[in-house]
């Protein structure tokens, strides 16, 4: 087998017989694979990586935050405020410097209300669902309307407007697991833009199959958005099991009527904040290494994989590097607020720190299963840093990707200014089983894989924060 | 969570509160996700796709070829010749037109000999290995030499030449499974170029840990290449279990001596060939849709996942489209010869058919686990074909990739001339457990996933072969 689309495989099919003792060969169409050049890495790196594989700081942060605080509802909730205080105490206790809360104001907040659904009539039965962030509300007594079924977003897009008026749209596309998480994009569009499309076509409400790869009863929460001028309609996600049940009911070919009660509301402005901690570096001019995750969570689970583990991983790695001696670059660990409801913490951070030089910005917000790939967008002299990362991360089973690193919600506003990025990609094969569900709890974290994450982040931080090369800015993102 | 590196996810973090009833919001840094445009697909497509999910032609081809012919050693072997005759009979029986063998000459062929290894001395024990294609030979009585261990290719590259002279190099990097197969590139370099590097540094021989993700006793065969002017040294792959055992022996810190017997040889020229079959189209000017897989295999297993299943999948899909009515474009199914030893069948095909217009070229050579992604490099009017493929493949759980389609060894010479490509990517998570090992047998094929493959290929062929748009050439590959 041979896949040339994977750049590193590009010469498996080298001319096998070019070295045969005699005779001409067909001119090679594919060229021989280039032998990589040797790369020198700091001998201390292996020691630090091995130490990280036995470190439990990430586990204790993840365990304690999900236990002592529990859900930290996105959108300036009281429990998120409690989590900020908890974070300050913990980060100080771990030995970080300049630990502080950086406050910002949320202009408006969407708040969950009641949420129930039932099939009426011959097949009367309850269905489990949860409202999507920014969903509109039904009357308190509920909304009763017939269901119109679309197997995919494309079918919804093709539907004539008249077919939706006064009805509850039901979009049921399924999602398969992908290691790179790409199926979240293609399946998730039913959540991201389905409610807006249904509202524009006059639907009274919309229910979707949860954007998830499980087969359980826990619905997957998450944000949606309506265009300016479009009045939000009630929008909710059925659990995968309930969505499949509703599909079977629709396949009976008889009219199905739902009663929906979904009563979220928009509150006034709220105060919220980011928590910041630092490992001061020796060279102020070398730029800050910005890392972190997000402190808020959806409310159904305890936000273990999303994103207590990301806080634990990045913080544990920063501590390991801190304990190994003062790095060249300052490492700044940010526990961002209000990621889930629109990336407010990341935007507030970027606005507050616009005058500072960042060398790189990267976050951990994809659970805690093993990291399988890294990518950078380093240019110039910094490409050598990428080469050292490849060698340093290889013993952890991590491949070098061929795409250009992007970022996540929280560091995106900093990356958008032209700061170099770097990604350590966790496997997404299990992530969407519990993402945004009641099942996002500590027991979903595999401590062995969590440690592999810490070792990868420690390797990355040691190499990047101590790199003698400059890390140039990249082209600002559009 | 949010990963903007995945293009389709690029606006999950849209400004959540932009629609809030009152108050200004922070200007959005990330833009709202674009709603996809509706796409019209042929209503017959769903029927054909469902029929494919119940079709058993791919299974019977895979079963019968691996049963009736068994291993079909790459490099013009007699069993490969027998497989060509078998193929002609089967393809005619299935109703294809213009079925024929297109012969070509292999100038030289590498042929396996004896292959054994044992640890001598205090820890005397046998080790299981297999010679790599293009390996040199030891004396018939064997080679006895001390082992020098390198945990990675980088360590081998860093080794001073003097450290290798007269020794057997042992490179032991491990490989983790990846859905996109990318770890084959980064781990596989130990096989692709390790022997050449060791030979240049004066090593007497090289053994590597098999390039595989299993933990078994079956060594993984595969090709390697030596630069012009470098005399091939004996080069072999230990099974993963045996490589780990040798690593533990090296960790004892005492000298370890191996006795290697590896006696392959280069034969003279041989005749070989491709098998070609067609579904004639109605429009000769629209270009040929070239598909297929490879008929040769490594000799240790029966070549079930590599690549009898690829022949089965592409042939079954072509038959389903043929049986549904004459397509616009001619579909040409090629069962290529001698892929494993250097892509000779693909090169011979490209040379023989250089004057013909191909619309696209694509192959199936990555096993038979479910297809999770497709990619194209269509340009101009043909981008609409990609949109229809996205809608047509989505019910099979297939995402649209954001990278540009490449190809495999067999179609690469045609793609190199500027013919458009398309990839239907099988999951690589299990593929390298048995790739090139004795375990590559029929029982590794999951009939349910095989049918999903056939449904995906049938969908692709129906859309592409019947597309009214022209499919323009793309920039020739470097």
UniProtKB/TrEMBL annotation, chains A, B:
Residues 274-456 form the Peptidase M28 domain. InterPro entries: CPQ (IPR039866), Peptidase_M28 (IPR007484). Residues 18-37 are annotated as: Disordered. It comes from the Bacteria. Residues 1-18 form the signal peptide. The keyword Ligase does not apply. It is found in: Endoplasmic reticulum; Golgi apparatus; Lysosome; Secreted. Keywords: Carboxypeptidase, Endoplasmic reticulum, Glycoprotein, Golgi apparatus, Hydrolase, Lysosome, Metal-binding, Metalloprotease, Protease, Secreted, Signal, Zinc, Zymogen. Pfam families: Peptidase_M28 (PF04389). Homodimer. The monomeric form is inactive while the homodimer is active. This is Carboxypeptidase Q.
């Amino acid at each position: 087998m041979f896949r040339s689309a994977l750049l590193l495989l590009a010469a498996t099919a080298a001319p096998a017989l070019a070295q045969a003792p005699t005779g001409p060969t067909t001119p090679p169409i594919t060229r021989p694979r280039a032998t990589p050049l040797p790369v020198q890495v700091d001998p201390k790196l292996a020691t630090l990586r091995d130490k990280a594989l036995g470190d439990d700081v990430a586990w204790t942060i993840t365990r304690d935050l999900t236990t002592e605080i529990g859900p930290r509802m996105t959108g300036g909730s009281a429990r998120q405020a409690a989590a900020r205080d908890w974070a300050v105490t913990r980060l100080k206790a771990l030995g970080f410097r300049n630990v502080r809360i950086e406050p910002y104001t949320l202009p408006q907040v969407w708040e969950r209300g009641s949420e129930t659904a039932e099939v009426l009539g011959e097949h009367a039965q309850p269905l489990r669902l949860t409202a999507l962030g920014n969903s509109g509300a039904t009357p308190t007594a509920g909304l009763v309307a017939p269901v119109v079924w679309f197997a995919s977003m494309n079918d919804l897009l093709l539907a004539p407007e008249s077919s939706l008026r006064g009805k509850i749209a039901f979009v049921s596309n399924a999602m398969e697991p992908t290691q790179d998480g790409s199926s979240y994009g293609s399946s998730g569009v039913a959540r991201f833009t389905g409610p807006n499309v249904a509202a524009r076509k006059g639907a009274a409400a919309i229910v979707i199959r949860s954007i998830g790869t499980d087969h359980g009863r826990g619905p997957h929460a998450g944000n949606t958005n309506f265009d300016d001028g479009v009045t939000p309609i009630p929008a909710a996600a059925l659990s995968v099991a309930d969505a499949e049940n509703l599909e079977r009911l629709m396949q009976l070919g008889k009219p199905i009527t739902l009663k929906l009660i979904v009563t979220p509301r928009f509150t006034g402005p709220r105060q919220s904040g980011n928590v910041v901690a630092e490992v001061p570096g020796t060279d102020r001019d070398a730029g800050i290494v910005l890392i972190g995750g997000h402190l808020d969570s959806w409310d159904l689970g305890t936000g273990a994989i999303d994103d207590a583990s990301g806080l634990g991983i990045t913080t544990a790695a920063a501590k390991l590097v801190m304990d190994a001696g003062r790095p060249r670059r300052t490492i700044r660990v940010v526990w961002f607020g209000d990621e889930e409801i629109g990336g407010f913490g990341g935007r507030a951070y970027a606005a507050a720190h616009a005058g500072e030089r960042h060398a790189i910005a990267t976050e951990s917000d994809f659970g805690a299963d093993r990291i399988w790939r890294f990518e950078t967008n380093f240019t110039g002299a910094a490409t050598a840093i990428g080469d050292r990362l490849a060698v340093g991360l290889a013993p952890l089973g991590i491949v070098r990707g061929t795409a250009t690193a992007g970022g996540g919600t929280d560091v995106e506003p900093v990356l958008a200014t032209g700061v170099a990025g770097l990604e350590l990609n966790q496997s997404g094969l299990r992530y969407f089983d519990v993402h945004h569900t009641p099942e996002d709890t500590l027991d979903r974290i595999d401590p062995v894989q969590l440690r592999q994450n810490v070792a990868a982040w420690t390797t990355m931080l040691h190499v990047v924060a101590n790199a003698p090369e400059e890390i140039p800015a990249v082209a600002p993102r559009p």
